[in-house]
Design goal:
The chain is of the alpha+beta class and 450 residues long. 33% of the residues lie in helices and 24% in strands. It has helices spanning 3-16, 20-42, 53-66, 70-82, 125-129, 145-150, 157-171, 244-253, 274-279, 334-344, 403-407, 412-430, 440-448, and strands spanning 90-92, 102-103, 107-111, 114-119, 136-140, 143-144, 173-174, 179-185, 191-197, 204-208, 211-216, 218-224, 230-236, 259-263, 288-294, 300-303, 322-327, 349-352, 362-366, 372-376, 378-381, 397-398. The protein has a six-stranded mixed sheet with strand order 12-13-14-17-18-22, with helices on both faces. Strands 6-5-8-9 form a four-stranded antiparallel sheet. A three-stranded antiparallel sheet has the order 1-20-19. The longest helix has 23 residues, at 20-42. The protein is globular, with a radius of gyration of 24 Å.
C-alpha cells in the first residue's frame, strides 16, 4: 500500500471514531492531502509551470491542520490550487451548489464593471415581467451590484469580470417557481423594481458529485438573411450527452440551408470528446482538430468523425456549406476548443468577442470528505499549434457590443454572421462552383472582411 493510500485509510479510521465536528475536520485535511497528491500525479506539466509544488504543500499543510472549520480548510485548498495559475482547477462543495433549480431566464454580461442584461427570451416570465436587454442589473433579492463588484478579484480585467459575473449569475438562481425581486436601471437612467418568477426550464441537469450546476438543452431556429437566404441556427447550453441527438436532428433539418450558425455564446463547455462527432457534421474527412498531451500517455490527437448517416439510418454527406460560430467572453472550455479547431482548420468563421481562455482538459475526483476536485489533466493545442489557455479564441470578426445596441433589440453578432453568409454565398454562386467545397470559408473569408 502506498504512503498516500495508507494516510487516507488511517484518516478514515480515525474519523469514524471521533465526534462529527472533529470527523469533518479530519476528512477535510485528508482531502487537502488528496488534492495535492492527485495534482502531483496527474498535472500535465511535471515542472508545474515553475511552481515549487512540494514547497507549496510544505507551506500550506500546517495551515490546513490548524484550521478550526471545514470552510477554513477549503480556503487553504483553494489557495493551493490557485498557485498553479491555470483554469479548470476548482474545489466543488455544497457551497458551490446553486441555491435552487429555478433561474430568472435571462443572460447577463459584465460591461464596464456593471452587470448588464444581454438576452431575454421573448416568451417567458422575464419578458412578461418587463426585463429587457440593455438594462443594468442593480440587485436580485438581497444580492446587490455593490457586492458583485466586490467580487472583482484576479490578475487582469478578464478575470475580474468573470468573478463579478459569477457572483451575479448565482443570484439569478433560487427555488423553482420562486419570485425574485429584481432592481434594474433602464437606458434612460430610471430605476425600477420588478418581480419575476424563476423557472427551472427543461433539459438534463449537469452535476459534479454532490454539486448541481445547470441544465443542458438545445434550441434551433430557421433564419433568413437580408437577401432571403435560408440559415439554420443551433445553440445549446453545454456539451453534454443530452444534446447529442437533438444536435444531429437539428443539423439534418438544416442540411439544405445556405449556411448554418452555431451559437456558443455563454456555453461553458462540457465533454471534450463530443467535438469529434459534432465537427463530423461539417467535415467529410478525418481532419485534425487538435492534440492533447498528458503526463502519462503519448499525445492524443482529436479528429473529426464524419457523420455519414442520420439517426434514422439515411445515408448523407456532412454539411459542406457556410458555417459561422458565435462566441463571447463567457464561451469556455470545450466550446473554445471546438471553435478554435474549426477556425484553425478553415472550416468556420468566428464572430463575436474573445473567449475566456479556459481551455484545459480536466477530470473530476471525489475527495474523502465528499467534496469534488476539478483538476487539469492535459494541455490542448489547435491544428495550427495554438494553445487556447489564457488567450482564448480571437474571432475572425470582432463585434463590439454596447448597451445601446442591446436596448435596440439588435443581435450584432448574429447580424454580422448573417451578412457574411449573404456575401460569401453570393461570391460562391457567382464563381460558378455550385458544388461548393468543404473548406469554403478558407477560400472566401479573406475577401469577406469589412
Amino acid at each position: 500500500m502506498s504512503a498516500r493510500a495508507l494516510f487516507l485509510a488511517l484518516a478514515l479510521v480515525v474519523a469514524s471514531r471521533t465526534a462529527p465536528q472533529d470527523r469533518a475536520l479530519i476528512l477535510a485535511v485528508a482531502s487537502f492531502e488528496d488534492v495535492w497528491q492527485t495534482i502531483n500525479d496527474t498535472f500535465y506539466d511535471p515542472k508545474f509551470g515553475g511552481v515549487d509544488w512540494a514547497g507549496v504543500r510544505k507551506e500550506l499543510l500546517p495551515r490546513a491542520q490548524a484550521a478550526r472549520t471545514v470552510e477554513d480548510v477549503r480556503a487553504v485548498i483553494t489557495e493551493m490550487i490557485d498557485r498553479l495559475g491555470r483554469s479548470h482547477f476548482e474545489l466543488l462543495s455544497d457551497s458551490n451548489a446553486l441555491p435552487g433549480a429555478g433561474s430568472i431566464p435571462i443572460d447577463i454580461r459584465v460591461m464596464a464593471s456593471e452587470v448588464v442584461i444581454t438576452r431575454v427570451p421573448r416568451e417567458g416570465p422575464a419578458a412578461a415581467a418587463g426585463l429587457k436587454p440593455g438594462q443594468v442589473l442593480l440587485a436580485v433579492d438581497d444580492a446587490t451590484a455593490e457586492a458583485w463588484r466586490k467580487a472583482r478579484t484576479g490578475r487582469d480585467e478578464r478575470a475580474q469580470n468573470q468573478r463579478q459575473w459569477e457572483a451575479a449569475y448565482r443570484a439569478l438562481y433560487g427555488g423553482d417557481d420562486s419570485v425574485a425581486v429584481v432592481k434594474v436601471r433602464d437606458t434612460d437612467g430610471r430605476q425600477r423594481t420588478i418581480s419575476v418568477r424563476r423557472d427551472s426550464g427543461t433539459g438534463d441537469l449537469l452535476a459534479f458529485g454532490n454539486v448541481t450546476l445547470r441544465n443542458a438543452r438545445l434550441n434551433s431556429a430557421r433564419l433568413s438573411t437580408r437577401s432571403g437566404r435560408e440559415v439554420g441556427l443551433i445553440s445549446f447550453t453545454m456539451w453534454m450527452g443530452a444534446v447529442g441527438e437533438p444536435f444531429d436532428q437539428a443539423v439534418d433539418s438544416f442540411r439544405e440551408s445556405d449556411g448554418m450558425i452555431l451559437d456558443l455564446r455563454g456555453n461553458p463547455g462540457g465533454l471534450m470528446g463530443m467535438i469529434q462527432k459534432f465537427s463530423g457534421h461539417f467535415m467529410k474527412e478525418k481532419d485534425l482538430l487538435g492534440t492533447m498531451r498528458t503526463r502519462s500517455t503519448p499525445p492524443l490527437t482529436f479528429r473529426a468523425n464524419p457523420q455519414l448517416a442520420t439517426t434514422d439510418g439515411r445515408r448523407v454527406v456532412p454539411f459542406a456549406g457556410l458555417l459561422a460560430i458565435l462566441v463571447d467572453d463567457q464561451t469556455a472550455s470545450t466550446s473554445e476548443i471546438f471553435a478554435g479547431a474549426m477556425q484553425s482548420a478553415g472550416r468556420a468563421r468566428v464572430f463575436g468577442r474573445q473567449t475566456m481562455g479556459q481551455a484545459l482538459p480536466a477530470s473530476t475526483k471525489t475527495l474523502p470528505n465528499g467534496d469534488v476536485l476539478l483538476h487539469v489533466v492535459g494541455d490542448f493545442v489547435t491544428p495550427d499549434g495554438r494553445s487556447l489557455e489564457g488567450r482564448g479564441v480571437v474571432p475572425d470578426e470582432v463585434v463590439p457590443v454596447s448597451i445601446a445596441t442591446l436596448a435596440s433589440g439588435r443581435d450584432a453578432d448574429m447580424d454580422a454572421a448573417l451578412a457574411w453568409i449573404d456575401r460569401a454565398r453570393s461570391l460562391w454562386l457567382c464563381s460558378g462552383d455550385l458544388q461548393g467545397t468543404q473548406f469554403l470559408p478558407r477560400r472566401v473569408a479573406p475577401l469577406m472582411r469589412p
